[in-house]
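Attaching the record inline, Q. Sequence:
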Amino acid sequence: MGAAASAPIKAQAKPPTGRILKEGILLYCETQGEEWKSCQFDLYEDGTFDWSFNGRFPEHVGSVKLKAVADQISVGKDCEEVPDCPEPPLGLTINYMMSYPHNYPKGTRPTDMKNNWIVFKDDREMKEWITALEDALHVKPLGVQSKPKKAPPQPRVPIASQLAPLEIQTEDPDSQADVQNDQKKTALNQNETKELQHTDFRLLLAGGQAMSRYSEDNMPHFGQA
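Structure, as predicted:
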């Protein structure tokens, strides 16, 4: 016969530090099939969760650093998804249950971890303990995987800033000189044209006067002998 597979070795929990955030008697079940027993639970501000029978420390049962297993804590109906979930005690429902594993070395598969079970007697007790656990673990809400954070909204960029800057065309000094020369040439041409027009007009006027004198000299003079 082959040797049975050995259970994962639990990690040794360090002594708790800081003050106690919450303490009280809760019903505890170590594994499926065992009876529920009353245990003294102490929650420390460093996230240590201690429990013992017959008051504090007389018969120490266990100690867990909950911060190391916060993502594996199940509350209420989620306990149904945890392997070897025990039946709740008579008169209570799974809605008041909570499961949490022992501390194991890094790399241990969750399916190989042994879970512990507690049950709260009513809504008020459950709310008080869950609130204390959330404060110690800095997790809200406990037992619900955190959703990925949305990317922060990008600031709106003014449309004007997205446009390419206008390029102001600066005229080349040489081109400006060419334009000025062209303007001077045009003015000279206009003056020459005006001068030619004046000359033609003077010639035309002189010719007209000459023709007038010629006509007068050659016209017959009626009435003269």
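The chain has a mean pLDDT of 74. The first helix runs from residue 123 to 137.

More tomorrow.
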